[in-house]
Amino acid sequence: MSAHPDNDRLLSYARAAQHGDDVALGHLVRATQGIVWRFCCNLSSRQDADDLTQEVYIRATRNLVQYRGDAPVVSWLLSIARHVCADQVRRNQRRTRLAMRLRNERTPTTMTPATPELNELVAALDPDRRVAFVLTQVLGLSYHEAAAACDCPIGTIRSRVARARQDLMSAVRHAQAL
User: Fold this and answer.
1) 8 A C-beta contact, residue 21 and residue 42
2) Would residue 46 be called left, alpha or beta, if left means φ above 0 and alpha means ψ between -120 and 50 degrees?
3) Three-class HEC string of 65-133
4) pLDDT tens track for 157-166
5) What's the whole-number mean pLDDT along residues 127-140?
6) Is there a contact between 56 and 35 (Cβ–Cβ < 8 Å)?
7) Is 3:140 a contact under the CB 8 Å cutoff?
8) CA 49 → CA 44, 119, 157, distances in Å?
9) CA-based torsion, 6, 68, 131, 159: positive or negative
């Protein structure tokens, strides 16, 4: 079974939606929301995935008239999702920095080692490596599709995935040594 719906069908939905066909837009969303949600879930959290997926479709609908069909529809949507998730990461980082600053002003913190789980290990990857890894290894996109979603060369995706694997293996070895 394919990792995502047939691009010709999705393209026909997108083209019809560009001309104001709300039914086609609904079909497009239903056909792609699973893969978009899984991508958002893997780049953020299950708790945020619904809201992030909704934001992806808000942005996609706003920009649908600009979609030319150069990339597969799913790659286009995942590219939007990548930006939505990156915006969320930046918001979370700002909140975390502020919370840490407030905590540090109150009492010194003590760190206790936690048992890492796979999701935590993937979440700890460099953001570019995590995106490439999730697209290809979790969602099953081809390197070509992932490159289109990330708007970068296919070789960059290959190297990011290879480095992500190395990072994950090192993290697992490190965790096992603790």
Assistant:
1) no
2) alpha
3) HHCCCCCCHHHHHHHHHHHHHHHHHHHHHHHHHHHHHHHHHHCCCCCCCCCCCHHHHHHCCCHHHHHHH
4) 999 999 999 9
5) 91
6) no
7) yes
8) 7, 14, 23
9) positive
